[in-house]
Amino acid sequence: MVPRSNRGGPIRDIMKYKHPALTVDVIIENGDEIVIIKRKNKPKGLAMPGGFVNEGELLEERAIIEAKEETSLDVELKELLGIYSDSKRDPRLHTVTPVFIAKPVWGHVKGGDDAADAFWININEIKSHEFVFDHKKVLLDYLKWRKKKGTYWSTK
Amino acid sequence: MVPRSNRGGPIRDIMKYKHPALTVDVIIENGDEIVIIKRKNKPKGLAMPGGFVNEGELLEERAIIEAKEETSLDVELKELLGIYSDSKRDPRLHTVTPVFIAKPVWGHVKGGDDAADAFWININEIKSHEFVFDHKKVLLDYLKWRKKKGTYWSTK
């Protein structure tokens, strides 16, 4: 049951409810190319680099760490594309993911950690690929962002 | 200890780590005015309307619900201003909050639920007020957004 509201009450009331898990994903762009990874773990398939955010961490720091681990690139975050919270977006559990747009500042692309592989694709290839989670929707939003900026979410 | 990475492994590994709690806040704007609430619960003080996001919920729906409960306004979300994840931003626990910019579509401002009061302030008053959590930083980012758009986060 979804409670009517649960913001301001005592801490014991706040913790009664379960919260979605928080992840973060990164679109690393360079001209007309972005970096895509092939996931090593289930669900297997193509994805943006990203990962879970742990308690105590800054979202923006976790984004940079995951980009480095999975693509070997040092990146700099430029903008927030949006935030995706559809409870069906991840088959494992309810995850909410903000998506940053970043630029590479050092290194060569090489898969690592949870990424079996990592590589550049041309943005024209986005439409013809399948991606895990809701990453296709996110990347299609990114194509809109390239044309007219704006911010995006699951139901927009 | 912050794990090196914990994205892709089996679900039992993912759930080993604690995640921050997710909240959502809303800047309701109309011309040069925005709606501010006076919190009924601790920490007491001025704030943007907002609240915790529960498992299974869409962030954007929770934003609209909290705006309605705390300000009595029906709102429409326009853009995402940013996302704030500094672990010190909320004295109660580590919360991460995306902030939406919205416009009122129906109703008159009246405090309700966790808001003891709700009222319009001119954006020129933001600088001279104190706010709870990191809401002053968020609202100063909003003033930047009005001038040059962009997206914002805790360390930007």
Write the SSE topology.
Two copies of one chain form a homodimer.
Chain A (H helix, E strand, L loop, with lengths): L10 H4 L6 E10 L2 E7 L6 E2 L2 E3 L6 H13 L2 E11 L10 E12 L8 E8 L12 H14 L3 E2 L3
Parallel strand pairs in A: 1-6, 5-8
Antiparallel strand pairs in A: 1-2, 1-4, 2-3, 2-7, 5-6
Summarize the structure.
The structure is a homodimer of 156-residue chains. Chain A has 156 residues and is α+β, with helices and mostly antiparallel strands.
Can you put this structure into words, describing what you see?
The structure is a homodimer of 156-residue chains. In chain A, strands 1, 2, 3, 4, 5, 6, 7 and 8 form an eight-stranded mixed sheet that branches. The mean pLDDT of chain A is 92. The longest helix of chain A has 14 residues, at 135-148. Chain A has helices at 11-14, 59-71, 135-148, and strands at residues 21-30, 33-39, 46-47, 50-52, 74-84, 95-106, 115-122, 152-153. With 156 residues, chain A is α+β, with helices and mostly antiparallel strands. At the A-B interface, strand 1, strand 4, helix 2, strand 5 and strand 8 of A face strand 1, strand 4, helix 2, strand 5 and strand 8 of B.
